[in-house]
Design a protein that fits this description.
22 helices; Growth Hormone, Chain: A; 3% strand; mainly alpha; single chain; 2 domains; two-stranded antiparallel ribbon; 496 residues
Length: 496
């Protein structure tokens, strides 16, 4: 299963590239579309909403490895085309539609990659999931670095009446780095007090950044995987676990194409998961595990979104009053330590159970927010706490996914439900915290983080409780499980 696994990892790099470029480039895209700040920030919502929709529907592509690989190829190719097309979008509505397409592709990548790695490796999936989420962090770290040399240092719309420009416009134009760091997805009201020109000659070089990212994305995997959409026999590759070998089902004599059928039980898209056939005979603990697992990720992924979105705004306000240039390093520090934490988690997950890793993560998040509240007047500890928070949040999603799927014995709809819950949390909590900060002040930023951390720990404790109550597999079922995998006999036939 080497080729499919490498494919899932590489498409998550595409996911990371696409998820992180919008914030730094948004001011230049505002100039390109000649729109207001409030109008252009709704492009965030277009991308995030369709990412959530794509996550819900991604389970449709579940029947075979070939089908899932083709879906991922199409999604990553769509992202490459989006990067190439963005410089040609001179209307904000057209740009929003293009970003919606990118969001759908990203959602499909998110659900399919997580789902298929869990299906292939099952009890051994934790280490492969950690590696998968390292690649999205690496892409998110690289994307702003590619864009940075091409960003405008001054306002990129030269007004025809520069001599009559208002003082507020001049002040805003001279303070673009501050505005750039203040851009918050889903909360455009935060920018209503800035007045930048919307008419005039557009001077921006950001198009080169998008074309470079399109070339990186294509050369990185699209061309290679398009040539090798086939897959290896999981029993002979040595990388797949017993579950991967057990999934080996069909051989087409006519075409000579190997297929892996994943069956119909569980791992559907969100709409299929809600069908009554999945409820027959299910105990209340079955539903409780799905719900509490999704709520843990709703909180932790929500913390990632709201912290990365608002830590800069919190730092530049009183009582810290950090210089804008210095505060601008905080989001980069946060994402850098998320990427570092995911890299460290790859070998750690080989030795440590997913349940233990999730416990360490949620407790670490709680303690970090508590210390940030205690030392709220310390600039040094804000940087230390930001790095610590990135480390503890880094491996929460893959560890939680592996733990929940293990509880449910790789049945049900855990992957789809958890991915959807995480996406909703990232979108909703960011909007909620933006509204609270606007009404209550910057200190509420840390208070909200502490509350979300407490809720994440509470839901995790409930998940452990329901895990203890969840029925164990019967010996009869265990004999038919992937652990009793099919192995080839002397004639090359697969028998159980």
């Amino acid at each position: 299963m080497c080729k499919p696994t490498l494919t899932y990892w590489s498409v998550f790099f595409s996911f990371g590239l696409c998820i992180a470029f919008l914030g730094p480039t948004l001011l230049d895209l505002r100039c390109q579309t000649q729109s207001s700040l409030s109008q252009i920030t709704w492009v965030f919502f277009s991308q995030q909403f369709c990412l959530l929709l794509g996550s819900c529907l991604g389970g449709v592509f579940k029947r075979t490895l070939a089908q899932s690989l083709f879906a991922l190829f199409a999604s990553s190719l769509a992202i490459s085309l989006v990067f190439a097309i963005i410089p040609l979008c001179h209307n904000v509505v057209v740009l929003a539609v293009v970003m919606a397409v990118a969001g759908l592709a990203m959602g499909c990548i998110d659900t399919i990659s997580n789902m298929q790695l869990v299906k292939i490796y099952q009890k051994d999936s934790a280490i492969f999931l950690q590696a998968l989420h390292f690649f999205v962090g690496f892409g998110a770290l690289l994307s702003p670095l590619i864009a940075d040399p091409f960003l405008s240092d001054t306002n990129c719309i030269l007004s025809n009446s520069t001599a009559n420009a208002s003082s507020s416009t001049a002040n805003a134009s001279s303070n673009l780095p501050h505005i750039r760091k203040s851009l918050v997805p889903h909360h455009p009201g935060n920018l209503s007090h800035y007045d930048l020109p919307m008419k005039g000659m557009v001077v921006t070089r950001v198009s080169y950044a998008f074309w470079i990212m399109a070339l990186i994305n294509v050369s990185g995997w699209d061309l290679g995987v398009a040539r090798d959409l086939g897959w290896e026999d999981p029993c002979s590759s040595g990388l797949g676990g017993a579950g991967a070998c057990w999934e080996y089902q069909e051989y087409s004599r006519e075409s000579g194409v190997l297929e892996t059928s994943f069956g119909d039980e569980g791992h559907d898209d969100l709409l299929s998961c809600c069908q009554s056939r999945n409820f027959r005979g299910a105990s209340y603990t079955y539903f409780a595990v799905h719900i509490t697992g999704a709520l843990v990720l709703f909180m932790t992924d929500g913390i990632v979104g709201e912290y990365s979105g608002f830590v800069y705004s919190y730092a530049v306000e009183e009582p810290l009053a950090v210089l804008h240039k210095v505060a601008g390093y905080l989001p980069s520090l946060f994402w850098g330590f998320i990427t570092l934490g995911r890299l460290i988690s790859i070998p750690v997950s080989y030795r440590m159970k997913p349940a233990t890793m999730v416990f360490i993560n949620v407790v670490g998040v709680l303690i970090t927010f508590l210390l940030l509240l205690i030392f709220s007047s310390s600039v040094v500890f804000l940087f230390v706490g930001t790095a610590s928070l990135g480390l503890f949040l880094s491996s929460t999603f893959p560890s939680m996914l592996a733990y929940t799927e293990d509880i449910l014995q790789y049945q049900g709809c855990a992957t789809t439900v958890l991915v959807t819950g995480a996406g909703i949390g990232e979108m909703v909590l960011q909007l909620l915290v933006g509204s609270i900060i606007h009404d209550r002040g910057s200190y509420s930023f840390l208070v909200c983080g502490m509350i979300f951390g407490c809720l994440a720990f509470t839901f995790y404790a409930l998940l452990v409780f329901f895990h203890r109550m969840y029925p164990k597999p019967s010996p009869e079922l265990d004999d038919a499980s992937p652990d009793k995998a099919a192995v080839p006999d002397d004639t090359g036939q697969y028998q159980r």
